[in-house]
Write the structure tokens for this entry.
Amino acid sequence: MDAFFASCEEAVNPKLRGWPLIVGGNKEDKRGIVMCPNYLARAKGVRTAMPMGKAIQLCPEANYIRSTRGLYSDYSKKVRDIFYKYTPMVQPVSVDEAFMDVTDVLHAYKNDYIKLANELKADIKNTLDITGTIGIASTKLCAKMASKIQKPDGLTVMPLGKEKDFIKNLPIENIPGVGKKSQIRLKKYGINVIGDILKFEKDFYESLGMHTDFLFNVANAQTSDKVNFEGEDDRKSLSKENTFWEDTNDMTFLKSELYSLMEKACYRLRQENTVAKTITVKIKYTDFKVNQKSFTRTKYSNMEKDYYDDAVRLLEMMMAGRRKIRLLGVKFSELEEFDNAYQEELFTDVDKEKNLVEKIDLLRSKYNFGVLSYGKNIKK
């Protein structure tokens, strides 16, 4: 979706349209941060997570409003309901983004995926009065790249069989998972766009400690990632994992990555009104051998801060030999609906804690989860 928080505010209050809008706080709240600027404000240089004082300097004429509680999650559910009208193969990614596999329904549109996409866009606009941008491609990775090209209210098709030519001039920053350190190292050797990756042989990237197969698969547009559809009734666990571009045994980095994975997993638990008791930490060594350890709490939770210390302990146990790893993952299991898990705990601070994380979730689920976190101590 396009500038989702701002678009929702404009949908319920059309008078806000046609003028720069910044969601996050009022003008007097100069110590706050920008949650979402609309595209008119972005044209003035305002960006998400920017200090409010800086935004006011760049765009003093904008309308500044506080976020409306419950509005964005409500609209997110409505958008997903529209997605499910077209196919059950939907993989939500964040509050305003999802992948859809429409292979099995294209016959109803005489295999015209552009017609289907335009109908979906029109359905969202007519039903909710907000716009969305669609990228169409043979894989999730390529579709995500395509969706970034014509915002807002755009539609980009990456032609089947021509993906490699399509992405070769896109900057390496467009590849999901490329960290700043890896970007700097690649650019040092003149690798600035995706096509540049193929200027070097595989052994060059292996000498840098990067995962060659993934890198070349991306450059050749040969990724085969599928939409991960999970039935609501048979969900037994929820997992998040990350394969690093470079093998590492840097514990400070790994603990930070561990927390990031837990943020994303716990956000998903909260969105599904679900809690868990058991956390499992998984690592994969450079020789592809896998190790994992689990810990079960006495009480349910979907708050990453409740699991972090135990997760670090599990990680430290597996990393005692300081062997480098290529993958880190977390899994939450023994899932239960929130209301069922807490029905007997009448005097807890559960509701207070739920209210606390609501606004945090709105920010970090949309903006790479790095914009705001709970207070935590990343032990070295």
